[in-house]
Task: structure prediction
Amino acid sequence: MSSWFCLSSSGRAWNISYAQANPDGLFERRVITVNGTWPPPPIEMNQNDTSVLHVYNGLGDVATAIHHHGMFLRNHSYFDGAVGISQCPIPPGYSFDYTIPTDMQIGTYWVHGHAFGQYVDGLRAPFIIHNPTESYTYDAEFTVIIADWYHTEHSILLGQFLNIANPTGAEPVPDSGLIYFTQNGEYLPGFNDNATLPFEAGKTYRLRVINMSALAMFWFWIDGHQLQIIEADGVDVEAAPIDIQSISVAQRYSFLVKARNDTNANWLIHANMDITYAASASIDPGTTMDYVNTIDDHLLVPLLAQPIGVANQTVPLNAFFATYSDGFNHASFQNITFNTPLTPTYLSATSSGSMDPAWYGPSASVLQYGNVIELMVVNWDIGLHPFHLHGHKFAIVWKSFDVTSNDPTINPPVPGYSATPMWRDTEMVPPGGAVRLRFVADNPGAWFFHCHIDWHLSSGLAWALIEAPDVLYSTPTLQAAPAIYSQCAQGNFPTTGNAAGHNDSATDYSGWKLGPYPQQLGWHAKGIGAMFGCVLSAVLGMGAVVWYGATGIGSDI
Result:
């Protein structure tokens, strides 16, 4: 089917501010709005259009930034919106324009805040790129937004999450879930029970489903109807019939669904949050169905095969959670919890061209231009983690559901060349499992790789990938736009040097707060001193008792 838009360039003004809203009907709270309304307006455009988003920070008390999730931004990495990686944050009272080309992409994406957990407070909206020649035929389409929802603001919840009183790192539990719809770039009325999709008997519909949660994975299905997966994260795939599908945080799927020919009944659309509280807990049978006809995403087959060769550069990323030196439970890759650089990584690269990973901080890897990169991600945690890569889609060439198993059905051998791998930008890694994600380093820039559960990103589960910094440095057209530098000046951030803003040494991180660090087990100076003091006190105490008894003092009382 053809799309509805004819513009070659589309400018939109987003005035970001606070207002009150009550989307779940249970509690009114302060949310982050665009132009005084919530939810923020959906964006729909054609492939080859250019989106220009004029962002004004009217929040008054905090900086902000906007990320177009899943966009390649070739030659424009500095518009990616990741604070400390591609840009400095937009201070209150200032503006910034994001220019987003769409010539290389089609499909279902979203746009959201990428600073201080602001998308959890509502700064999020669909971003749809229509293909002039769609791969499948359907009568109409809807976008379905599913998300968890909190009655308390992110900043308060984060203080409770990263707290010595939460040593196990239990994430804030959502107060409710949301489901609501758009069509033709406009929201349909209502949320949850008050929201409906106006199907007509016998017609075929495309449903673009986006999980905008902070924490929750969802199971999605429609009573009385079968779904066909036709797209995942902007990649059209061979139609895969399913009854129900899991959708992890930040993932997107398009489903084809044919409306029934009879109109004797209406049918429920289900989006059930899946949050594991304890391995031994029972499941409420009234809110689930048998998960019998579903598919794991690595088994999907793209309509356009894109093979990937054997990797010649591997980045090991072992994910851990533990109590760190500050007494808080933190997340880490390679036992290093992420700290946001003072100098945006992109500017560190364009001002130096350094191929030394240390130049960009302890949580960074440098990628050689043209290499086939393999991210070897192992999840040593007991929970599921949706990992997202900025600036690329990756091929899922291998997936293990238990890296310690000898069973090849759940821990298969590692392939070399892969002819028809599934590509996407956000992949769920099971507990104790692992994935090998490959892509070609052909998009020079500074790109973020992180868990998209916001609480885990906030606690340090992230890594910076600096792609071809020598190319960035030597190519004038890849230098950041002037507005990037003025934005950093507004916030007094450095624009040259290493991650801490120093030009003389790669590892001079003075002035940049790093850590916390993994706890060091064993006897340390403070512990030895404390133990010595305890033993000395005990010896003196026992000596005093013996002396007291030997002298007979008090025997006449």
About this structure: Helices lie at 154-161, 345-352, 454-458, 469-474, 482-490, 525-551. The longest strand covers residues 9-21.
